[in-house]
Amino acid sequence: MGDSAQAAWQLVVSADPVLLSIVTRSLALSASASGIAFVIGCVLGSWLAVSRFAGREVFLAVLNTLLSLPSVVVGLLVYLLLSRSGPLGFLGWLYSFKAMLLAQVILVLPVVVALVRQVVEDAHVSHGEQLASLGAGPRLTGLLLAWDERSALLTVALAAFGRAVAEVGAVMIVGGNIDGFTRVMTTAIALETSKGDLPLAMGLGLVLLLVVLALQLLIWGLRVCFSGLASPLNLSVASAITRARP
Questions:
Q1: Containing domain of residue 219, as a range?
Q2: How far is CA 30 from CA 46, 65, 98, 185, 222, in A?
Q3: Which end of the chain is more exposed for a tag (fewer CB within 10 A), N or C?
Q4: From 129-138, 159-168, 212-221, the region with the lowest mean pLDDT
């Protein structure tokens, strides 16, 4: 184990080309998937937090169920959609970066929607009546509350990225773990461990831990900055709505 750890560290500090290509591809995939899911999830989660409609509780129950959706099930569903006999087979995305991106977006989106809904709904309990008295509708209320809670939403973005970067089942199924094309950190760790190439597997694992640590420090720093710059909700919202009203 000591020899493998030393060899893994040498791969990291020497920027081994194979390791570097896998890390770059993995980070690009996870960042893209979490970014797309975050944008869509903020809109849906904010709307869901302030809207009341028939069947809302059922919808929330389904959403909470999707939080525990196994990644291999997502991979299977995306595989069936993108296979030659599937409804999206004409796209030719199977075993490509796009297929892995689609699978990770589907996997991460419920997490973002659920967390954003909870953050905005908690803020709506405190400030909902004030916004309604100022004339804000449900859509504007949701967007304003989401913006006001942007420091908390940074944590949601981190959770989305963490869910994406640690995923292995879905990208293995729809990406095929093709060397140089669709191999990412998690699938490479699984493959290299089974092959007995422990230095590369441990090196990738070390990089994965360093990425998570860097993100934690980045989010902490951004939250400190936002907490110092944020203005009171009543002043910012009142000003925005007053200018928008005829």
A1: 2-244
A2: 23, 23, 12, 11, 20
A3: C
A4: 129-138
| Burial profile 119-138: b = 16 or more Cβ within 10 angstroms, e = fewer | bbbebbeebbeebeebebeb
pLDDT digits (tens, 9 = 90+) for 40-92: 999 888 888 888 878 888 888 888 888 888 889 999 999 999 998 889 989 88
Contact 160, 65 (CB under 8 A): no
Whichever domain contains 39, its CATH number is 1.10.3720.10
Query: SS3 for the chain, per residue?
Result: CHHHHHHHHHHHHCCCHHHHHHHHHHHHHHHHHHHHHHHHHHHHHHHHHHCCCCCHHHHHHHHHHHCCCCHHHHHHHHHHHHCCCCCCHHHCCCCCHHHHHHHHHHHHHHHHHHHHHHHHHHHHHHHHHHHHHCCCCHHHHHHHHHHHCHHHHHHHHHHHHHHHHCCCHHHHHHHCCCCCCCCCHHHHHHHHHHHCCHHHHHHHHHHHHHHHHHHHHHHHHHHHHHHHHCCCHHHHHHHHHHHHCC
Contact criterion met (CB below 8 Å) for 166 and 184 = no
CB count in 10 Å sphere of residue 17: 8
Q: How many domains does the chain have?
A: 1
Find the farthest-apart pair of alpha carbons in the chain and give their distance in angstroms, rounded. 72
